[in-house]
Amino acid sequence: MATSGTNAFTLDLSDILEEAYERIDSELRTGYDYRKARRSLDLLLLEWQNRGLNLWTVKNASQTLTAGTAEYTLSAEKLDIIEGVLRTDAGDTARQSDLTMRRVSVSSYAKQTNKLSEGRPIQYWISRAPEAITVTVWPVPDSAASYVFNYYYLERIEDSGDVASNTVDVPSRYLPALVSGLAYYIGMKTPSAKQQVPLLMAEYERQWDLAADASREKASLLLRPKIYR
User: Going by DSSP bridges, is the β-strand pair 78-88/97-100 parallel, antiparallel, or unpaired?
Assistant: First the structure.
């Protein structure tokens, strides 16, 4: 029995919207239907960014540190930093080294006695303003060496866009959760689907749990208690 020999199935924006409408026993008929469904989809994607660590959005970047400068504003698509290190002698195959940096809270940073103290940065804190996040390192970088802040960050999921042939900025394994979530969102504002809303929500949460569990970090984790004497 022959199989297709392909594994590239995906849905474009129009397919996603149509599937969601079909799940509430309705049809995508007008331009306004399309517009309100796309708006719901973008709100759904924003919700996903509040659900925790979406591993497909983790990216790597670096910020060159300037002597005497403590604060650095990152580009708007960067939502948060999940890990950061200080890289010295970047690009030198013999000498490049990544040194541990500790992320601290605003409270811990505020308690630093001398925030103008210069040296090799050992910690950073993140200010998350609506327009962009700002990284503040301490001590303030000195001129004794070249420093680069190398970090892994969460990237904002791209908007759905206006073109119906667009694909959505999520892995294909999340499409069942995406369609289920969109059907739930549309159902909440469709009078004829009000009775279906509890079932739509339950199915959405089930599909999200399946996708999130399949995408969790698979590396081993060892926790060792620290004993104080």
Answer: antiparallel
61: containing domain: 55-155
Report whether 67 contacts 144 (CB < 8 A): no
* Total residues found in the chain within this entry: 229
Q: Is residue 226 part of a domain?
A: no
Q: How confident is the model over 40-79, as pLDDT tens digits? A: 999 999 999 998 889 899 999 999 999 999 999 999 999 9
3-state secondary structure of 203: helix
Q: Are residues 165 and 208 in the same domain?
A: yes
Q: What is the pTM of this model?
A: 0.86
Residue at a domain's end among 155, 173, 201: 155
Is 17 in contact with 38 (CB distance < 8 Å)?
A: yes
33 to 36, 39, 98, 138, 181: CA distances (angstroms): 5, 10, 52, 51, 17
